[in-house]
Structures are given as C-alpha cells and as structure tokens.
Amino acid sequence: MIKVGVFGVGHLGKFHLNNWKAMEGVELVGFYDPFDANAEKVEKDYQLKRFANPQDLVSLCDAVDIVAPTPQHFELCELVIKKGKHVFVEKPLASTMEEAKEIVKLARESGIKLQVGHIERFNPALLALKEMSLQPMFIEVHRLAQFNPRGTEVSVILDLMIHDIDIILNMVKSDIRSISANGVAVMTDTPDIANVRIEFHNGCVANLTSSRISMKKMRKMRLFQKDAYIGIDFLEKKAEIIKMQSGDKLPGEFNFDIETPSGKRTIAIANPIVPAENAMFLELQAFIDAIKLNKPTLVNEMHGYQSMEVAHQILQKIQRNQPVA
After folding, report:
1. Are residues 126 and 267 in the same domain?
2. Phi, psi angle pair for 319, to nearest 5°
3. Would you say 190 and 154 are in contact if contact means Cβ atoms under 8 Å apart?
4. Of these four, 2, 113, 134, 260, which has the most CB atoms within 10 Å of its CB?
5. 208 strand-pairing partners
6. Which residues constitute the domain of residue 303?
C-alpha cells in the first residue's frame, strides 16, 4: 500500500483526490491547504484529515502529490525530496529555470521517483496512436481556451502551450535549431495569446497557437509525415489517419484509389478506436507503478525541465518582439 498526501485541494486538486480515492493499492493519508474555507469543505466532503504543518504530512507519506499553485512548487518539492519521498508535481515543474534546475539536481541525487503532470501524454486520443510510427516533419497545433482567472499566475505558454511543447519534444527526436514567437498580454500581465514556430535540426517544423481568451475551446494537433497525415483531437478524444496504403491495414480502414504522376496509389483512411480512459487516473497510476516496480517515470524531471526551458525561450522571444514606448 502506497501512502499518498496531497498538497493543494483547489479546483484541480479535487480531481486528483477523486482519482486517488478510486485507485487500488493507495492510501490517502491527508492533505495540506492553507485556505480555510476550501480546506474545511474538503475535510468534510472527503472525510480526509487536514494537516496544519506540511512536514507532518510528508513524514507520514511514501509519495506526495503537489497540486499547489506554481510559485509554491519549488519550496514543496524541495521539502518532499529532502525527506526522501516520491513526488508527483503538476506542470510547470517550477516558476523559474533556476528552481527547475535545482529540483532536477535534488531528484537525481536522492534517487526518488519524480513525475511531472503533463496530462496530455496520457490522453486516450494520443494513446490510440501508440502502435503507429510517428515521425512528423510538419506539426500544427491549436490549443484555445475561454478565459479563467485560475492559472493566470503564469503566461499562456506555461499554462497551456507547455502541454504541446512536451508532446512535440517527446515525439521529434531532434534538437531545436531556432524559435520565433509573438504574443500579446490582453487580460493579464503576461501573454494570453501566442503564436510560435519551432524549427528542428532534422527539418521538422512545428507551428503552435495557444490562447486563453478564445470564445470556444480547441485542443488539436495535426501531424504531417512521409505518406501520412495524423489528426489528434485532445478535447473530443478522437484521432484520424490518412495515409498511403502500404500493406498493413489499420482497424476500420477505408480505401480508395487516386491517380498520381507516378501511377495509381491507394489511400487509406482510418479512425482509430479511442478507449474511454481517464487521462488523470492513467498518469497517477503510472506514477504509482513506477514506485512499485522501481522503474523510471514516464514524464520525469528532465522532461519537465526541457519543456520549461523551451517555454522560457519562447517568452524571451516574445519579450524581444514587444513594441517599445
């Protein structure tokens, strides 16, 4: 039985609590949250002990789930890691690159398991493509959300776009050659909408647009590679594949022929079956499995650091492009 404590039981923290309570082999020890009104309600609704002192909670746990606001990530990660406990921390890993670097150092030196909450890695629409070789040379991403004051302590890059940065860095096995970016602060003091172009040394190009002031929600990624197009809808949990037929049939594949300059080719269209899975449950379960089986976490501290590093490079590019009064 893995004993887990939760730091932060706000809007997102409650989703974490629900998933922990549904997981076998996990015992929820309690939670820490400095906000009395919210904490008292959680204590009553979940019949879960509230700890007034973070150290007391950590001492009773095998692993800690940090769902507190980003500015608190470093302090809490440092406390937990130095106590030798495993850490799940929501993205982004930390507020600054210096803090993120120190977390990576502490985690490596201690040997604990650390996983960063890049939940889209566990989105069923992406998992439905796990048997397909993804080697994109052009990527187009749109991640749009309606304005919500929650999460605006960081820019839209670190709030929304970082999900797609993480996926792309994991998918494109090449170093970044250049980044160009532009963004505008509309409702907050940091960029609320941004457009970014990332060029990789292998020739792949990724165009990303993220906004948290949109009238509608959208979370789509389109991949173009040799002989194939792959569409992923993270919001609707759907995926589609259009590719040149090469012998291996996809489940539910529909074929038709076209004439090309090199002769007749067969086009295959398929919509992979997307399992009805809960991405948050999957990522938390993966964290627990890594502890139990003593294996690497799927989204480790270096993944979190690298995504943050690219996000901060994007923010620097945006700042340089701002008009000077």
Report:
1. yes
2. -60, -40
3. yes
4. 113
5. 141, 196
6. 2-117+280-309
